[in-house]
């Protein structure tokens, strides 16, 4: 019997409490996150391990100012 892994990646929703919306954490969102880190000269750390009151807020502020998906 041959089995294969799930053909669809597991994305998850992340709540942005500063803008009161959700973002689906996909490879596109991860690319935005890495771009934001690079622009602000931060070392990579997994988003879920960031301090919510500092770095997560900093990312959401950056993200909403660079967001092409929201008006």
Name the helix and strand elements from N-terminus to C-terminus, one letter apiece. Answer: EEHH
**Estimated radius of gyration:** 14 Å
Distance between the termini: 50 Å
Task: Count the E strands.
Answer: 2
Q: Could you tell me the mean pLDDT?
A: 83
Features:
71 residues; alpha+beta; two-stranded antiparallel sheet; 2 helices; 38% helix
Explain what you see.
The chain is α+β, with helices and mostly antiparallel strands. It has one domain. It has helices at residues 27-39, 52-65, and strands at residues 12-16, 21-25. It has a two-stranded antiparallel ribbon. Strand 1 and strand 2 form a beta hairpin. It is globular.
Topology at a glance:
Elements: E1 12-16, E2 21-25, H1 27-39, H2 52-65
Antiparallel strand pairs: 1-2
